[in-house]
Design goal:
Radius of gyration: 21 Å
Order of helices and strands: EHEHEHEHEHEEEHEHHHHHH
Mean pLDDT: 95
Structural class: alpha/beta
Number of domains: 2
CATH architecture of the largest domain: 3-Layer(aba) Sandwich
Bound molecules: NADP nicotinamide-adenine-dinucleotide phosphate
Helix content: 40-55%
CATH superfamily of the largest domain: NAD(P)-binding Rossmann-like Domain
Strand order of the largest sheet: 3-2-1-4-5-6
Shape: globular
CATH topology of the largest domain: Rossmann fold
Largest sheet: 6 strands, parallel
Strand content: 5-15%
Number of helices: 12
Number of strands: 9
Amino acid sequence: MSDATPTIGKLAIIGGGLIGSSVALAARHSGAASEIVIADTGADNLAKARALGLADSYHSTATEAVGGADLVILAVPVGAMTTVATDIAPGLKAGAIVSDVGSVKNSVLKSVGPLVPAGVHFIPGHPVAGTEQSGPEAGFASLFDGRWCILTPPEDADPAALGTLSAFWTKLGSKVDIMTADHHDLVLAITSHVPHLIAYNIVGTANDLETVTRSEVIKYSAGGFRDFTRIAASDPTMWRDVFLNNKDAVLEMLGRFSEDLTALQRAIRWGDGDALFDLFTHTRDIRKRIIDAGQDDDTPDFGRPHDS
Ligand code: NAP
């Protein structure tokens, strides 16, 4: 976040939750927009956003917020994108850029794209940054620092609009990557969507066990379980929409995952220690590469305090 020259005049953020409020804070902090407005259908969320001073003005309808906006960011759950796009279409100014932060890209491209009027640029995006929390109070200005933001422009996207959107995210602290929506959905299926499904599943399984009590699961959770519970505490609406909208890629990756899990099951059954050791050595190396790439730090146990 260096140069204070705004890349955008008026920025309209639709949905002032974790990501929308973080975009507002990062845009304010970096000077990436000269005016910031937020729309949210939740009266409580809007009141919280106002109390936090996230924007210059607050709106209960998206239609009202987008008037005169140079950049509109849809920061609502993926399942709400079509409704919002329908609502804002008549109010968009010619030359505006419409983008989004949805965790799935192909369904957004296909459902929102046709609703964007001629003369308005539509370039979907996804900041690969977040937490398990939601709502305006969960946002923070540094959320995007050093994290990737993936843009998935349609084939006929305007290069100048793509440049403006890339510059905007760079100013918010992100590194920008560009790829097709299909490829994004495959990559994120394995790096984000399937891991969340595994976490939801293992926490659900532990909850249903009859031979191990729930209080034992909680008591001994430091053995690894609690790290899954962080992910499994993620917003139910958001994640329901991710799985409903990235069905093909998730099922493809889940198929691969199930085959590999079966291979591990065999290795344990037949006492194939070499197979287990080789895999665990390889996965440890992947963790090291993530740390080396600056996508996590190597503080032991995620920096949790321990008595010495
Ligand atoms: P969030 O904290 O739940 O915020 C979503 C906000 O949108 C809520 O305030 C919600 O209000 C509001 N909203 C819902 N429908 C609306 C509509 N039709 N018009 C205006 N506002 C509406 O969720 P989030 O985590 O910021 O996620 C937002 C988007 O970012 C999702 O598409 C998600 O896939 C994507 N994303 C999330 C993460 C993450 O880690 N959380 C990371 C990257 C991308 P109500 O609460 O009243 O419904």
